[in-house]
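Entry 14. Structure prediction run on the chain below.
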Amino acid sequence: MSTEKKHKVKNIFDDISGKYDLLNHLLSFGIDKRWRKKALKLSGLNKDSVLLDVACGTGDVAIEAKKFGVEKIVGADFSHNMLSLFNKKSKWIIGNNVQMVAEQMPFKDNAFTNITVAFGVRNFYDIQQGFNSFYRVLKQGGKATIIEFKMPKNKLFAALYKFYFKRILPTIGGFISGNKSAYTYLPESVEEFDVKVDLIKLLQNSGFRKIEVYNFTFGIVQTIIAEK
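Output returned:
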């Protein structure tokens, strides 16, 4: 099952990569940029940071991190097409990206001060193994910052959110990208993830002890910062 999910997710993101940025900004009404900025600010990134951006996609987190003064950035993604776009958008870090999965990182122990993963953890085929890798490659005192969707607690807002997520988003996303199944997978994966996965527990299992949780935009997005 893990191998099947790994390749399914890779194929989805390879296929929609050309429209990925447009749809991210359109379907989130542009708020996704604010989510990344707030999360990176909470992480305390600065010119001395050495950042690994996991599931980096087309490089939006890396570009935002650059504004905080970060110069040493490695982008990592399993989708070749996403990494190609990452190169084009982030020319100042060409050569520093790696095609890989989070569960199997080709890096030395204690190599990074920070790891970020924005809206990618639910696509890991083994989240616990991924977090074990995070812990291994982070320096002591280093931080893993996870930005991820979640289902809001307010019942009325949750109902509206589900309607948008399950009816409107797949239709618009499918029409523009030409791949409706990709934008059906998104809401399905978020709801399943929210019910079945306890990120805090998994991070603790990997050895992280200081863990902070922040909710954005009525609780539809969470940012978790775990320190080694």
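The two ends are 30 Å apart (CA to CA).
Filed with the rest of this week's runs.
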